[in-house]
Amino acid sequence: MKVSCIKQLSLLLLFPLFLAGCVFIPKVAPENNQGCQLVTKGLTLDVHTSPEAIESSIEEMSHVIQSGCNKPECLIILAPTVTLSVGSFIVSGSIVVVGNTIHWIEKQGACDDSVTQRTVSKLINSTKELGGWVVKTGDEFIDWLKKQVSEPE
Fold first, then answer.
1. Cα–Cα distances in angstroms (integers) from residue 33 to residues 27, 41, 42, 101, in the given order
2. Eight-class DSSP state of 20
3. What would the DSSP string read from start to end of 75-144?
4. Which of 52, 53, 121, 144 is an S-S bond match for 21, by CB 3.0 to 4.6 Å?
5. In angstroms, rounded to a whole number, what is the distance separating the alpha carbons of residues 119 and 38?
6. Statement: residue 129 has pLDDT above 80
7. d(Cα 109, Cα 112) in Å, to the nearest integer?
């Protein structure tokens, strides 16, 4: 019975301990768009693994198993090995999500090939084709309003 518990425990802890050897770091993604100069850059999540950290984690797991401790409190010894990896994933993942969101918003407003800019261009072109005109500045709009008010019908 004790041997099967040890096997179950080792299988249960195998993945988190291998994960403990990983550190997640945000990395700047290569930019394909040369025509649009943006301030922000796209990000990816880069995974760095350390064989020494994985080996250390396995040694700690085997020490816990060999000590004969059958209580859940024994697993607390392994918590620091997993905390670094999970913490780096949460922090770095959040940085990547926020950074890429800001990058996407900037690209939508600044680049001619963005979905937003293409949609606005289509709207302007269809408005002009129907005989309308597009107001480009606030002063132009005020001048148009003044003209509408001053002209009697």
1. 18, 11, 11, 17
2. T
3. GGGGHHHHHHHHHHHHHHHHHHHHHHHHHHHHHHHH-TTSHHHHHHHHHHHHHHHTT-----SHHHHHHH
4. 53
5. 20
6. yes
7. 8
Phi and psi at residue 69, to the nearest 5°: -80, 120
Distance of CA 69 to the CA centre of its chain: 40
The pLDDT tens digits of the residues spanning 17-26 come to 555 567 778 8
* Nearest residue to 26 via CA among 48, 56, 53: 48
Q: Quote the Cα angle for 50-79-74, to 5°.
A: 125
Is the pLDDT higher at 20 or at 28? 28
pLDDT tens per residue, range 67-109: 666 666 666 666 666 676 778 788 888 999 999 999 888 888 8
The span from the CA of 97 to the CA of 28, in Å, is 12
Q: Which residues contact 48 (CB under 8 A, 6 or more apart)?
A: 22, 23, 24, 25
Q: Under a CB-based contact definition with an 8 Å cutoff, are residues 62 and 25 in contact?
A: no
pTM: 0.56
